Amino acid sequence: MMKNKLNSKASMLTLLLLGLFWFCKKKQDLHPSDKAALSELAKYSSYESEGGRIVKISIRNRDLTEIPVQVFRFAKLRVLDLQGNKITEPNAKLFELIPALEELSLQDNLLEKIPEEIKNLKNLHKLNLRKNKISEVPLVLGSLPLQSLDISDNKLTVFPEALLNLNDLQRLWLQSNEIADLPAQIAQLESLLYLNVSHNKLTGLPEELWTIKSLENLLFYQNQIQGEISENLKNLQNLQVLNISDNKITKVLSYAILLPNLRILNVHDNEINETLPENIKDLRYLKNLVLHNNPAITGVLPLQLLELPDLVEIKIANTGIDKANLAPFTQKEGLETDIQL
């Protein structure tokens, strides 16, 4: 018994010594002039180093009103995460002294504007400004090599003109603003893979949207879009996710089923007045089919859908779809449905 206790204590001591060795080694790997700044920052941040330099600093949820001056010591910093603080205006030093910055998150702060000095971050490709109080975007933002931009949950009333110059942009989050329309020039975003403009005040969509053939995810649920979706939706042959729920759309199914890579089709709570196309069964990658709360959708749910290997969800409550052949869908293992016979 005593021997087991001694072995246990020896193991614990070994682990502690190994941990201390790792920590000391990590500190020794750092550039000597960075150590003092890091010691101060270590009180409330985490970091990552590479080649003796600090390359990532995360200071989340600390109620900071300004960026700690020690951050500006790390000129080779590539990632800075300041999410969940109370910063109203970033110190200009951020944009002048850390030119290597590639990713910046100021999510969930109190920003009312984006400083013009952001133009100095010539390597910035990921910017997260979600959940602030931003009402406009400076034109200089369009000069950055951004690939990912999240400016959702802000106070935008128009689609920012600066965004139209982001030729490398692949992912754009604009949901939960007050944008009333999308400009025809949105077609300039030829690299766009993901677009989320949900929870806005859109009443329609520009025809030019259907020319962005790179799109894989298109989300504009909870708007005020009325009438038919353009037949040119079928041009988005790479589209995998289409979520247009909670609008007043009357026609979309006959075009959506022409998208060969579609995985998620969500059109619930609209005013769709169509017969469910039989060749919906040909969407071989379909995972989620969500049609509920469209009383005017009629037709038959093809039994061939049960053969789709990825199908996990079918929602058709409060539609006019024929209930005669729905029993097999309720018995399919792994398939979530709202079907009540």
Q: How many whole angstroms does the radius of gyration measure?
A: 26 Å
Number of domains: 2
What is the number of E strands?
A: 18
CATH class of the largest domain: Alpha Beta
| N-to-C SSE string, H for helix and E for strand | HHEEEHEEEEEEEEEHEEEEEHE
Describe the structure concisely for a colleague.
It contains five helices and 18 strands.
Description of the structure:
The structure is a single chain. This protein has 341 residues and is of the alpha/beta class. The chain folds into two domains: 27-150, Alpha-Beta Horseshoe (Leucine-rich repeat, LRR (right-handed beta-alpha superhelix)), CATH 3.80.10; 180-341, Alpha-Beta Horseshoe (Leucine-rich repeat, LRR (right-handed beta-alpha superhelix)). 14% of the residues lie in helices and 18% in strands. It is built from five helices and 18 strands. It has helices at 2-29, 35-41, 93-97, 253-256, 327-331, and strands at 46-50, 53-58, 79-81, 103-105, 126-128, 148-150, 171-173, 194-196, 217-219, 226-228, 241-243, 248-251, 264-266, 288-290, 294-299, 313-315, 319-321, 336-337. The strands form three sheets. A 14-stranded mixed β-sheet has the order 1-2-3-4-5-6-7-8-9-11-13-14-16-18, with no helix packed on it. Strands 10-12 form a two-stranded parallel ribbon. Helix 3 (93-97) links the parallel strand 3 (79-81) and strand 4. It is elongated. Residues 1-7 and 12-28 have low confidence and may be disordered.
